[in-house]
């Protein structure tokens, strides 16, 4: 598990840096709130409405498709490392697996689920 | 590389492959629905043909894939019978689909491939002894059903049904996975045969591992109790059955139940066969479930005013009878259970078909009991068909439903469960009341209010009604035709 | 050392889970979930199930969580007052129910946890092939974790593997059928 030490160190540094940066600025920086400071900077545009823009339901289908192909990708890794041993048998297996998903992809495509307009 | 016997997976492969290919054509053939329908009917017929063909050839057993001696897929008479039943249920439900969807103005041709894929899922579920496969089978069966429940998404009830079914189905799946994990933690195995062997040793030593095993099996049982709609895990069923398109309701009422009980047949007695101690633990639990389900389902069905919802509660009550059949020794219990499932398939699909016909004509609110008033005068044949289904569901001779209930009742009485048998008798009497109320409404009451144009029966739904009605009566008059072969299957199930 | 890492990760996972249910803003809930899922990925590493850890990060933290955020953005929260204290989804259960549910959850966790602690999984006699995979990664066998998974998944578990593709396909159809607007 010591192989993971660099990763742990990375995570610690990654989490620590912003904490330190914000902490230091909070401790050291002078605070004088003024209304003018909260206005848009220079030629920035005045914001209208909330930031919570409602997404179109169309994106949902795209997101689901993304997750599904994400899972498909996962299955490719163990297959790839054992490909030499599995040989043609493994090739056919994976071809079937991907074939089924491509079928679904073709369906979604033909159905127009991937169109943006 | 592992040996692979194609014929063992044929019952699954045929509907799955058919469903996949059909799916490819659905977007292109959106306007050619009759064609898609016909092809899916053909696929379903093939899905029925292969199990039947394998079944009636000698030595219809086999297993394939997986570790040596621990197959992923098994084929035996039990799985083939149930496969046949799924395909028949799917075929009959498909016959009802176009007319219903036309009326609902929901032309979603996806229902055809989804129905085939759901059948494929059911066939997986009953044709394996591996817990991983059981989970996958349950999901492949359930997800198409969630989607089909919400297919008529113009109706809020349909969306609600899909959403409820999905959420509670997800909870059930979580229970199943957690249960499988605990069983694995306790025994170190995923194959039911190994689990049973290990369970014997685990229970002998007792201690924490026995506790884990019990907790795991209990959670798996809960998952399937959800799926069959056993009280107190039934609360999704009425709304889902009510909201789903009626042909889908018919299909899932029958198919899901048959598949789930198929698994329970392998799971509970299979495990108990190797460990009597385990049997002693789960039998009281199943008995409690059975009592709650029989009593609860029948009592609530009594006060329903909509026929579709009444049938939903009645379907819960029937799950109770099936659970009771599960309590008997395997050789006789399995026979009773399978016979009841066969009868239940025809009488339930028939009854839902009548409801579907009413809704085709007059919209989804047409399943009010009052609408059935005087049906005898308007459509005598339809009234007779509905009468047959109601009598059978009530368990009145000479219908098939009577024979089914009778064998379960007598077996419970003889195998030392007189109290349970008495509860079943009482529950069935209460149940008879609401079925008979439908009959009196149809035959004795005058048609009330404005007389609708009358329900017309086109060829396909007519076929469903005719087949269901005839078979319901035949199974009542000559139960030996089916009970005999099923008895042989059941006695063949006691093995290693 | 192992215990220390485990404690930190388990603590983070718990903190994430508690954050999910306590946060008023659903986006914070989702971020709490991200913390929990990532910590669980770390726990998988501690268990030597490295492949599962990667899957956990890629699929759950990377995929499912994005889906969650999408759904949060799909729902018009402000309009329904869901991101304020005033309203949450559905009728509120009475405090009695909440306490009962919490008690039941804690009781069950303690029950299963106690059993598992008493009976570490590695003492299971005659453990199956899956166990060999987990050990293979840590025990420094000829094959690594990923190779073991590959070897098993594409030979013995071939049927479940192919079934997984059908399952994914069905989910895909479901999403398209239920969420796609026909024009």
What is the count of DSSP helices of chain C, taking H or I runs of 4+ residues? 8
What is the CATH superfamily label of the largest domain in chain C?
NADH-ubiquinone/plastoquinone oxidoreductase chain 6, subunit NuoJ
The termini of chain B sit apart by 27 Å
Task: Summarize the main sheet of chain C.
Answer: none
How many structurally independent domains of chain C? 3
Largest interface: A-C, 49 and 52 residues
Radius of gyration of chain C: 21 Å
Bin the strand percentage of chain C. Answer: under 5%
- Give the C-level CATH assignment of the largest domain in chain C: Mainly Alpha
Largest sheet of chain B: 2 strands, antiparallel
Distance between the termini of chain C: 60 Å
Structural class of chain B: mainly alpha
**How are the strands of the biggest sheet of chain B laid out side by side?**
1-2
Parts with pLDDT < 50 across at least 5 consecutive residues of chain C? 83-87, 123-129, 136-141
Q: What is the tally of beta strands of chain C?
A: 0
The shape of chain C is globular
Helix content of chain B: over 70%
Instruction: Write the CATH architecture name of the largest domain in chain C.
Output: Up-down Bundle
Shape of chain B: globular
Number of domains of chain B: 1
CATH topology title of the largest domain in chain C: Four Helix Bundle (Hemerythrin (Met), subunit A)
